[in-house]
Structure formats: structure tokens, C-alpha cells
Design a protein that fits this description.
CATH class of one domain: Mainly Alpha
Strand order of the largest sheet: 3-4-9-10
CATH topology of one domain: Hypothetical protein af1432
CATH superfamily of one domain: Hypothetical protein af1432
Number of helices: 21
Helix content: 40-55%
Number of strands: 11
Structural class: alpha+beta
Distance between the termini: 57 Å
Strand content: 5-15%
Largest sheet: 4 strands, mixed
Radius of gyration: 23 Å
Length: 433
Amino acid sequence: MTSARASAKVLRDAVWGDIELTAEELSLVDTREFQRLRGVRQLGTANLVYPCANHTRFDHLLGTKHVATRILEQLGIGGDEGRAIGLAALLHDVTHVPFGHTFEDERRLFPRHDVPERTRDFLERGELGAALALTGMKDEVLAALGARGKAPRLAGVVSGTVGADLLDYLARDALFAGIRHRYDERIFRYFALEEGRLLLRLEKRGSLREDALSEVVHLLRLRYTLSERVYYHHAKVASGALVSKLVERALGLGLAFDELRDATDEGLLTRLELVYAPRDPVLARLLARLRRRTLPKRAYVLTRRIPAELQAELVRRFHEDRAERERVEAELEREVDLESGSVLIYCPSPDMALKEARVLVRVDEGEPRSLASLDLPEVRDLLEKHRDLWKFYVFIAAEDKARSPALSEACARRFGRPDELARLVKGELRFHA
């Protein structure tokens, strides 16, 4: 047994069983920056809806490294090339701050966690930066994470449309949210590398393997199920909007991004409580509601049934423009006689497509194609259903729920469309079979 092998450590993971880390990988995991991720939940506020969804970015990074190793073994890749990809998988989400997707993707308060500047900032300083430098693979890892030079041919092993990141979080999120669906691990056998491109080989001797195709479609089905039931669950959306409003108000009092970069979920909430809430009674009131799990309620909803022009206008005004969102929230509060902080507007990006359908697949002896281009009825249906998850919400504080009809009417006048909430709750808005 080599000394490197002898110094490896085996960890027990709820999803994958035994996960082995080398001494080099452990040197990164044991840094303060990596250990912080034990306190950053993978799904943000989803635990307020699914109580067991308390798994963390720390867990996910270990799982992603394990999955990347399995893909590399399937491809027959080792040496320094495989080592760099394994380290990139281990570090790919180390730049996440508490409730990151809510602040970055949904409410657009900060740049995304994976922009090159932020990746370099997190991986080139502190204990983690020093430990990564000692591996001699810093430049290769940064390149694999899109933060330096041209991405290597195997970068997709980590973050491709179907890569280690996706395969770990689908399995992990489903398990801890109590969703009793899982893809078959035979999918690892389908990975192949052709002319520097990572793809899924769904053919055998030039003919399509229906069982292999079915398994990839099942993966998309699981992704949609998690999106519908967990990622875009209305109570998770409401709780995320509430947390975001806390940070938005604190930003007006001087909160800086650096206060988030080293924080855990609870650390951020405690800082808001001790530093900013005493200076802002609205923030203090909203934080108390979050602590009690008194979440905002839906008062007004629009879906993709609205004209495309109106959807684009809503996205421009309320997804892309924080100042406009705050202005209209305040106007609605005055119009319906509600105290400040009682109305929250939530408008997601219109890009609700299942990006996993763009995965490159080989189904015959011709050129590899994207799964979506095969024009399979079930894939088409899943793509449309996923786009239909887009919803524009206006939430009202739970204590003011009796004023929901008045707020709904005010929104209908302002946005020029009747409220679709009642029909949505009754299950009447079924756009596709």
C-alpha cells in the first residue's frame, strides 16, 4: 500500500455509502473555509417546508467529488488530469454564501457564486488558498472551474448539463426532502469521451438502447419533480423572499458582501439580529416572523397563461430591478393600509427550461446530438411542464391574511390581470397533460 493510499480517509455518506478522500483532498477539507460549509444548507430555507432538508454544501461537495471519481473511472482517466478534476469537484461550490441561490439567482442582490472573480477570490487566499497552492494544481483547478484560461476537456465532468454536481444534488435533495424517486446508477456506465467532448452513449453497435434512453429521461423526470415539489414550492419561495428582504434592508444600513462570505446560515441571521435589527424595526419584525416560521402567504399569482409581453415586463421590473420591486411593494402597502414589510413581490427569471435536456447523447453511428433535439414526446412534455413552473407572486404577511382580498384586487388593477391563485389552488390550471 502506498503512503498516499494509507493516509486516505473513508467517510460514511447517507447517499453514496463510503467516500474515500486522499490526504491531499483532506488538506483542503480541513481548512476553515471548507468547514464553514457545514453550516450552509444546500437548499436554503427548504427545511422550513421539508424538516429533514438540512443537508449542507459540505455534504454536497464530498458527494460531488465521489461522483466525479466514478465518472473519471468510467472514462479511464487518471494521473494529473483526473486529479485536477477531482479537486475541482471537491471545491466547486466553496464560494457559496448563506441562502446563495435566493440572493443571487432569484433576487439578484449579489453576483452569482461561480463568476470567475469570486472563484479566484475564494481559492487564492486564506487557509484554503494556501492548501490549494501546496497541491501544485491551483491553475488547473481554477481552469476547470472556469476562472482561469481555457476550460479543460473534462470540465463537464463536474458541472456539465449532466455531471457530478447534478448527479449528487438530485440524489441528495430527493433523499433529504423525502422524495421517493431516484435514478439508476447504471447511468455512470453511459459516460464517454469523444473528440474531447463528454457525452452519454445510449447506443450499442450502432443501435439505440431503449433502456439507456429511458434512464436518461427518468433523470429529467426526477429533476422536474424536485423543481415542482421542492425548489419552487410556494412556501419555500415565500421563506426565501422573506430572508432576502431581511438582507435587502440590511444592505441599506451598510451590510457588505464580506459579512456573508465567511458566514453560515445561522451566523448571518444572528448578525442581522444583533447588528442590524436594533436599527430597523421593520427588519426586526420580519426576522421575528422568520424565527417563528410565520411565513408570508400568497395573495396574488400570475402564471405563464399571461401574454409573453407582460411576462417580459414583469421580469424586467421585478426580477432585474430591485429598486422598482421595493417601490411597488411600498405603494401596495400604502394602498391596502399595511405596515412596511408586509408585502413581498417575487418574480423569477423566465429561463425555466430543463437545461439537462441539452446533454449531448450518442444514439447511433451519426454525430452526437442533444437529448432535446431527438424530439421525444416525453422530453417535450417535461420541458413545457418545467417552463410552466414560472409564477409571479405577491405575498402578504401571515398576520395580515384577512387583507389578502384587498391586496389581490389592488394587484389586479395595477398589473391588468385577474388573480390566478384560486384556480391554481383548485388545480384548474393544468397547461399540459
